[in-house]
Amino acid sequence: MTHPFAGAGVALITPFNEDLSVDYNSLEKLIEDQIAGGIDYLVVLGTTGETPALSDEEKKEIVRFVIDKNAGRLKIMVGIGSNNTLGLVDSIKKTDFTGIDGILSVTPYYNKPTQEGLFQHFKAVVEASPVPVVLYNVPGRTGINMDAETTLRIARLSEKVIGIKEACGDLSQFAKIVNGAPDYFKVISGDDGLTLPAIATGSIGVISVIANALPTKLAQLTHASLEGNILLASELHLQMAEMIKLIFKEGSPAGVKALMELQGKTKNTVRLPLVPVSASTYSLIEKEFSQIG
């Protein structure tokens, strides 16, 4: 795999102690678990990491901690996005990119810019970033969908724009991007449940939430899909399908943290405005976990 972010990526959670401080002991164990499980790269400060609920100092400390503990073993992508373009450019210019292999930058949220506004926003990001840029389209969270034409327009700006984490849920949009993209620009699935069909449509992998809890299964699913082993990929897809649905039932990362508590990997603690999943959903996750092992 020649693309730096091909294969199975994990959007790391931020483990918290009961007093809501960052649980660095659990984070270190999580990193080792991902590496041992066959995950190909780490994504730090994504939505799954509850980044909006972290202070600027915590964000810096978490990134440095992950870089230090990873010790160059896997590629590292860091989430750097905002709905304030000028502020984002300033943040990028002030960031120490030592040990960072690329950034993941989400479409501006809440403002609901036009497609031209999205293009101009990412043009500024690409010009400011000293490392490769992966775009992130997740309309279910941002309130705006970046269409395929805009994505391709941004992709052609520079070879520094190497891909998009596409979480629109529309495989026809995946196909339009794949068919029109320059060779250096690749599509990465942003939906666990679409890993297999997205790869079949031309995606080079997934940035996963469930990999926090099930890194080996997710890595095997991704690699089998990429290798054309559809029998194994389908089997793994079906094994995890219900659990994937359950961990998103009441929002992410509350669901996957509940599963990880059942595994003894971290505490089931999130920061407001998120809250832990309900007792009924927790029970469903526990039941499904007992079935898939």
Report on the architecture of this protein.
The chain is α/β, with parallel strands linked by helices and 293 residues long. The chain has one domain: Alpha-Beta Barrel (TIM Barrel). The protein contains 12 helices and 8 strands. The chain has an 8-stranded parallel β-sheet with strand order 7-6-5-4-3-2-1-8. Helix 4 runs parallel beside helix 6, helix 6 (148-155) packs parallel to helix 7 and helix 9 crosses helix 10. The model has no long low-confidence stretch (mean pLDDT 97).
Oligomer: single chain
| Class inferred from helices and paired strands | alpha/beta
End-to-end separation in angstroms reads: 30 Å
Strand content: 5-15%
Radius of gyration: 18 Å
CATH architecture: Alpha-Beta Barrel
CATH homologous superfamily grouping: Aldolase class I
Helix content: 40-55%
Specify the number of helices: 12
CATH class: Alpha Beta
Low-pLDDT stretches: none
CATH topology: TIM Barrel
SSE run: EHEHEHEHEHHEHEHEHHHH
Shape: globular
Total domain modules:
1
Largest sheet: 8 strands, parallel
How many strands? 8
Mean pLDDT: 97
